[in-house]
């Protein structure tokens, strides 16, 4: 888009569009949106226009800091979905009145009529979800993510949820940071497992300790400049240690440097990772020091650990029953492709009220968590009918599946994703007998909303020619992952028609099962044999 977005932001502060939504669009409807720049501004309030098939409606994104929905909030979201996210036609697998959990611990609702937006804001505001000034989209700090079991995890170092909320509150509706060069993503995680995925965020905080003033202080080490999208980059260490009371000020200073020195001439180069690539982590640290009101300390001793605390086979997905630090348990429920019916969300909220503490938590793997279930109630909890749809023990392939919105609603996507992944998983479960955890991420385009670069098997939507026709296709990558040895998937196949991709994936997994050594993971196998050699020689790939 070049300078177009910068120009429209200069014409009108996008935060001011809330009044226009309430006073004009909510009264006159979609056709009143005649300014071609207005759909871009609407993103500042979490509103994205749908594609041509669903023209006239919006996707609404709701920020959920750290993925924590407090008592009453999940039920209200389910009620709003049932009342307002009902489309003109139903999805073949999910019907209507549904929402999506995103890879950033957000909620997305579809089929939203602009005329209903003020009512939705009011309903969500009644349970303290500040959607009216959300900054859920646009060139602002996006939802601050963290460990979805903060305060529950029996092995965590620091409960970072209060800091997630403090940083969120600082940036929420803050006009000083409502016009950044591009979106800006922050992860704060106090657990050993790096659950915030700071490696692919602009700013990532992880637990550490440092000797200060004669005593050991717990705090955070900082990494910066990570991200996916069209050019994936892992975050770099800044050699900075933060105490708890320095976290908000540090994030203010870092965002100020990005705001003032980020690239505003080329939108494709306007992310923080490109600024750090150009000028270096040491430069960024120095600029933050010039802005911050405290002296930066050098990194402390990292307190991150390997996957031993969170079942290393299923790195940080939190599915299943897990003991908490207080002796109760949390239940991680798998949500198929992250999509849930409004009724399911209400039912999950009811279960949390009955068995837990009333909260629902969202994970970056598009699943939900019901916390604080007493051990003596686990058996009864597991008989609840909702757990037939949202499983505690899904198959390894189902458990590892993630998708973006796809062409059903998104104007950027090149292929359909949600229904395709449902079908692929059902067929893979029938064809393959595997107990190996394999993460399958299907993204409808190269914007990477499904985070394919960190998947065991990655799919990126494309178009291809087959038998003279243009068909939906995918690039296929292998061997991505975060954790102890972070790295991105290597793209080994290009433009494989989707109708063939299922057979290709089946053959890749079957070959892995035949050749793996000593129980090695899929990713370990891929890099032992080399990603190119992990693809069998198939006739369909030679056509």
SSE layout and pairings?
Blueprint: H1 4-11, H2 17-28, H3 38-42, E1 47-49, E2 58-62, E3 68-69, H4 73-84, E4 98-101, E5 107-112, H5 117-125, E6 145-146, H6 161-171, E7 186-188, E8 203-212, E9 215-224, E10 236-242, H7 247-261, H8 272-279, H9 281-291, E11 301-302, E12 320-323, E13 329-333, E14 339-341, H10 342-355, E15 360-362, E16 368-373, H11 378-381, H12 386-389, H13 396-399, E17 401-403, H14 418-431, E18 440-443, E19 457-466, E20 469-478, E21 490-497, H15 498-515, H16 522-529
Parallel strand pairs: 6-7, 7-8, 17-18, 18-19
Antiparallel strand pairs: 1-2, 2-5, 3-15, 4-5, 4-14, 8-9, 8-11, 9-10, 12-13, 13-16, 15-16, 19-20, 20-21
Helix pairs in contact: 4-10, 6-7, 7-9
Largest sheet: 6 strands, mixed
Number of helices: 16
Backbone structural class: alpha+beta
End-to-end Cα distance? 37 Å
Strand content: 15-25%
Cα-atom Rg, whole angstroms?
Answer: 23 Å
What value does the average pLDDT take? 93
Number of strands: 21
Percent helix range: 25-40%
Principal-axes shape call: globular
Uncertain segments are none
Question: What can you tell me about this protein's structure?
Answer:
The strands form 4 sheets. Strands 6, 7, 8, 9, 10 and 11 form a 6-stranded mixed β-sheet that branches. Strands 1-2-5-4-14 form a 5-stranded antiparallel β-sheet. It is built from 16 helices and 21 strands. It has helices spanning 4-11, 17-28, 38-42, 73-84, 117-125, 161-171, 247-261, 272-279, 281-291, 342-355, 378-381, 386-389, 396-399, 418-431, 498-515, 522-529, and strands spanning 47-49, 58-62, 68-69, 98-101, 107-112, 145-146, 186-188, 203-212, 215-224, 236-242, 301-302, 320-323, 329-333, 339-341, 360-362, 368-373, 401-403, 440-443, 457-466, 469-478, 490-497. Helices cover 29% and strands 20% of the residues. The longest helix has 18 residues, at 498-515. The chain has 543 residues and is an alpha+beta fold. α6 (161-171) crosses α7. The two termini are 37 Å apart.
């Amino acid at each position: 888009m070049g300078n177009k977005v910068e120009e429209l932001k200069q014409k009108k502060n996008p935060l001011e569009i809330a009044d226009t939504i309430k006073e004009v669009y909510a009264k006159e409807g979609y056709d009143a949106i005649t300014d071609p720049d207005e759909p871009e501004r609407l993103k500042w309030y979490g509103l994205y226009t749908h594609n041509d098939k669903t023209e006239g409606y919006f996707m609404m994104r709701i920020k959920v800091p750290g993925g924590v929905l407090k008592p009453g909030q999940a039920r209200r979201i389910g009620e709003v979905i049932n009342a307002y996210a009902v489309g003109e036609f139903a999805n073949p697998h999910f019907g209507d009145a549904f929402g999506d959990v995103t890879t950033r611990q957000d909620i997305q609702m579809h089929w939203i009529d602009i005329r209903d937006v003020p009512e939705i804001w009011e309903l969500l505001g009644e349970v303290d979800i500040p959607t009216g000034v959300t900054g859920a989209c646009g060139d602002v700090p996006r939802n601050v993510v963290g460990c979805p079991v903060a305060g529950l995890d029996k092995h965590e170092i620091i409960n970072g949820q209060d800091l997630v909320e403090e940083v969120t509150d600082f940036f929420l509706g803050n006009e000083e940071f409502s016009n950044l060069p591009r979106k800006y993503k922050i992860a704060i995680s106090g657990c050993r497992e790096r659950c915030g995925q700071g490696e692919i965020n602009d700013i990532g905080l992880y637990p550490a300790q440092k000797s200060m003033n004669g005593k050991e202080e717990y705090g955070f080490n900082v990494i910066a400049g990570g991200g996916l999208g069209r050019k994936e980059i892992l975050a770099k260490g800044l050699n900075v240690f933060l105490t708890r009371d320095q976290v908000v000020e540090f994030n203010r200073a870092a965002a100020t440097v990005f705001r003032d020195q980020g690239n505003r001439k080329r939108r494709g180069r306007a992310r923080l990772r490109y600024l750090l690539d150009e000028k270096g982590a040491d430069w960024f640290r120095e600029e933050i020091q010039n802005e911050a009101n405290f002296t930066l300390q050098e990194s402390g001793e990292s307190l991150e650990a390997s996957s031993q605390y969170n079942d290393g086979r299923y790195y940080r997905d939190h599915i299943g029953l897990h003991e908490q630090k207080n002796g109760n348990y949390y239940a991680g429920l798998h949500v198929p492709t992250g999509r849930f019916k409004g009724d399911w969300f209400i039912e999950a909220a009811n279960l949390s009220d009955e068995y837990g503490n009333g909260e629902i938590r969202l994970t970056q793997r598009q699943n939900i968590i019901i916390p604080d279930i007493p051990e003596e109630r686990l058996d009864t909890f597991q008989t609840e009918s909702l757990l037939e749809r949202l499983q505690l023990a899904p198959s390894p392939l189902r458990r590892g599946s993630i998708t973006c919105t796809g062409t059903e609603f998104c104007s950027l996507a090149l292929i359909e994703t949600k229904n395709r992944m449902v079908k692929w998983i059902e067929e893979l479960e029938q064809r393959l007998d595997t107990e190996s955890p394999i993460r399958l991420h299907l993204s409808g385009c190269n914007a990477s909303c499904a985070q394919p670069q960190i998947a065991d098997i990655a799919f990126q939507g494309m178009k291809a020619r087959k038998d003279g026709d243009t068909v939906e296709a995918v690039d296929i990558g292998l061997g991505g992952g975060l954790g102890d040895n972070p790295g991105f998937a290597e793209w080994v196949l290009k433009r494989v028609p989707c109708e063939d991709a299922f057979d290709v994936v089946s053959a890749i997994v079957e070959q892995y099962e035949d050749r793996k050594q000593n129980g090695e993971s899929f990713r370990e196998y891929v890099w032992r044999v080399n990603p190119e050699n992990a693809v069998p020689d198939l006739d369909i790939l030679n056509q």
